[in-house]
Design goal:
Radius of gyration: 20 Å
Bound molecules: adenosine-5'-triphosphate
CATH architecture of the largest domain: 2-Layer Sandwich
Strand content: 25-35%
CATH class of the largest domain: Alpha Beta
Order of helices and strands: EEHEHEHHHEEEHHHEHHEEHEE
Number of strands: 12
Number of domains: 2
Distance between the termini: 7 Å
Number of helices: 11
């Protein structure tokens, strides 16, 4: 607890990339079954969580708890700050689970959340899902609700497809709509160049474009899982797959050219990240990644050099 009686912490939460993303046909409910191998990368958003008053942890006060969200950072203009922000969706889901919550202005205690965005928005790196995971983990800690990983993952699945993965992070194989997540083994660290686009691509638009294209050939994730187990970066490069790539290229033909340019600049493999428009280039090591980033800097609004896997959400208590 801080000197003023408040409880504060900071959650650093990483973005994800899909190393293997196989997409099945559209189901009657509109969703697609996925088989995907995911890893977190060292590009983080930060969520600060502050509960006004230590007394707020009293059961009566909890029932009147309000939530307030503010934000800054890259692309904050595109991030809704109202109830549809995934931080608040996740926070309210947690409150419902434990019987907490009222209105921010009914005179009860307030928990303040401040989001600093570094993960590009609507860019295929699950920034919103990562933030939702940060909210679940951070609020569970600040409020002392102590739900444990299983229950948190179940709440996460109610918030969104990528959120259960983001709660744990690391390397995982996910199925269904992405909510059925099992950890996977990965040896060593890989180095990636992340080419951030100035624009956004709506995930729903990309899936609609996917539905209008010929179905991709069936694929299983074994080749990728094997490459990860051995830590062989060339094998990993040969195994990357993203079934959403043709759909992203159909909506944004320039992405294909820049993907090819990344490859020509020396990437071991280059691909669209998730539903795009972010592009990823795999490098042999840290020095190669830096050189590659320099070579392609002019192609993107922003270029980041990252490593994978990063862990999951990291909680730091603030004094
Ligand atoms: P995915 O890779 O899971 O498809 P994405 O990286 O393409 O996701 P996000 O950055 O998660 O996309 O954002 C998608 C949309 O979600 C945004 O356009 C924004 O309106 C909304 N959104 C809600 N909360 C957030 C948040 N905390 N951060 C970013 N976007 C958010």
């Amino acid at each position: 607890m801080a000197g003023d009686g408040s409880v504060r912490l900071r959650v650093r939460v990483p973005a994800k990339i899909n190393l293997h993303l196989a997409v099945g046909p559209r189901r009657p409910d509109g969703y697609h079954d996925l088989v995907t191998v995911l890893q977190t990368v060292s590009l983080h958003d930060t969520l600060r969580v502050r509960c006004d008053d230590g007394q707020a942890l009293h059961p009566t006060a909890r029932r009147r708890m309000g939530l307030v969200l503010t934000a800054d950072g890259v692309g904050d203009g595109d991030v809704p700050l109202g109830d549809d922000n995934l931080v608040l969706v996740a926070g309210r889901r947690l409150m419902r689970e434990v019987g907490m919550g009222g209105d921010a202005d009914d005179g009860g205690p307030t928990t303040r959340l401040h989001l600093t965005k570094r993960i590009p928005v609507a860019a295929g790196m699950a920034g919103g899902s990562a933030d939702a995971a940060a909210a679940l983990v951070g609020l569970d800690r600040v409020w002392g609700t102590d739900l444990g990983p299983e229950r948190l993952r179940r709440l996460a699945a109610d918030v969104g497809s990528d959120v259960p993965f983001c709660v744990g992070g690391g390397t995982a194989l996910a199925r269904g709509t992405g909510t059925d997540v099992a950890p996977a083994l990965a040896r060593g660290t890989t180095h990636w160049v992340v080419g951030v686009d100035a624009g956004a691509l709506g995930t729903a638009d990309v899936y609609r474009a996917f539905d209008g294209l010929p179905a991709p050939a069936a694929a299983d994730p074994d080749r990728m899982l094997q490459a990860l187990r051995t830590g062989d970066v060339e094998a990993l490069g040969a195994a990357v797959r993203n079934d959403l790539e043709p759909a992203a290229f159909a909506l944004r033909p320039d992405l294909r050219e820049r993907r090819d340019a990344l490859q020509d600049a020396g990437a071991i493999a280059a691909l669209v990240s998730g539903s795009g428009p972010t592009l990823l280039g795999l490098a042999a090591d840290a020095a190669h990644a830096r050189a590659l980033a320099d070579r392609v800097a002019d192609l993107f609004a922003r270029v980041e050099v990252v490593t994978a896997p990063a862990g999951g959400p990291e909680v730091v208590t603030e004094g």
